Amino acid sequence: MPTRRRALLILIALLMLALTSIVLALSVGSMPVSAGDVFAALLRQPTPGAEIVQQLRLPRALLGFACGGLLALAGTLMQVLLRNPLADPYVLGVSGGASIGALTAILLGLSGFGIDALAFGGALATLFLVFGLAHGDGSWTQTRLLLTGVVVAAGCGAVVALLLALAPEQQLRGMLFWLMGDLGQSSESGFALGMLALCLILALPFARELNLLARGADTARALGVAVPRLTRLIYFLAAVATAVAVSQAGAIGFIGLIVPHLVRLATGNDQRLLLPASALAGGSLLVLADTLARSIVAPQQLPVGVLTALIGVPVFLLLLGRHPR
Questions:
Q1: How does pLDDT run across 161-178, given as a tens digit for each residue?
Q2: String of b and e for 40-66 (b: at least 16 CB within 10 Å)?
Q3: For residues 173 and 110, is the Cβ–Cβ distance under 8 A?
Q4: Summary count for the chain: helices (H), strands (E)
Q5: Using a CB cutoff of 8 Å and minimum separation of 24, what contacts does 5-11 make?
Q6: How far apart are CA 271 and CA 255, in angstroms?
Q7: Which of 238, 269, 278, 280 could form a disulfide with 77 if both were Cys (CB 3.0 to 4.6 A apart)?
Q8: Dihedrals φ, ψ of 222, to 5°?
């Protein structure tokens, strides 16, 4: 485990990275804004590009940071619970339910809050369906939960394909952008930021128990951890974090899979540091990816999920090559 001094330095470095990524997101785009004008706009002073910074780029950057942090936090929790480095936030099928809700809202002609609300409702409905079916006659097991999540996710995928087949051509582009991950659909970041803070506050008190659980359920149980209660609570917390992120930004891949690996290389596997560090790193990565997505072929914007996949695939293959076991 890293010393307190080293842990503090890591968190400070990641916090500086987060601030730098947000400032970069506010400055870069089809209309560049200097760093001085950015800070003046944040202080509500009239400067060139102030409206773009205040009304468009700042809410989008904060939303990207919140969603990236939620996905990285959920991925970290899932990898600890399953003791599987390939686990990601979407393993329980939450993204499928959110996709059904969002695409239904788009078909109904809704936008903004309507899409977010139906996506979040669909994600929660899928979550409760998976947990309800996995519980069955009371013999709730980890394997049963995962298998139920896989089956429900497959069913949701079929419904999503049906909705795309039935969608009018003029709505199809927006639906595909949402499915690939797009931060431009929502302009409200307060809810996602609040949920990120809440999930961290709820998860950190269980960091010691998660450290013990990472050594194995039998070891954790022998050392006094109430394993069934802990796993249910953390599963639910990870699923809610995923539901919030997906409802706000669409199904953005690889953040929850890659970020915990990268952070673990620097911090080790102490959850007291890994959880907040993953949230900071995940938020920073998604903000930087979104900045690239709207700048590479500006003024046209790419779905940010495409950029995270293009970044995530080679990084994951590199990690796999370094650690073949």
A1: 999 998 898 888 888 888
A2: bbeeeeebebbebbeebbbbbbbbbbb
A3: no
A4: 15, 0
A5: 7/267, 7/270, 7/272, 7/273, 10/266, 10/267, 10/273, 10/277, 11/273, 11/276, 11/277, 11/280
A6: 18
A7: 238
A8: -65, -25
pLDDT in tens, 216-256: 888 888 888 888 888 888 888 988 899 899 888 888 888 98
Domains (range + CATH), the chain: 4-322 (1.10.3470.10)
Handedness of CA 200, 206, 212, 214 (dihedral sign): negative
Angle in degrees, CA 280, 285, 291, rounded to 5: 130
Backbone angles phi, psi at 283, to 5 degrees: -65, -45
Q: Record the tokens describing residue 79, joined without a space.
A: 């990898």
What span, in angstroms and rounded, lies between the C-alpha atoms of 62 and 23?
Answer: 11
Q: State both tokens at 140.
A: 């709730």
Residue 287: alpha-carbon gap to chain centroid: 12
Give CA–CA dist 64/60, Å, rounded.
Answer: 6
Q: Spell out where 190-273 has E strands.
A: none
Q: Which two tokens stand for residue 183?
A: 């931060």
Determine if residue 171 is left, alpha or beta; phi over 0 gives left, psi from -120 to 50 gives alpha, anything else beta: alpha
**Which H/E stretch holds residue 83?**
none
The residue behind tokens 């659909």 is: 185
d(CA 248, CA 236): 18
d(CA 186, CA 175): 14
Whole-model pTM over 0.85? yes
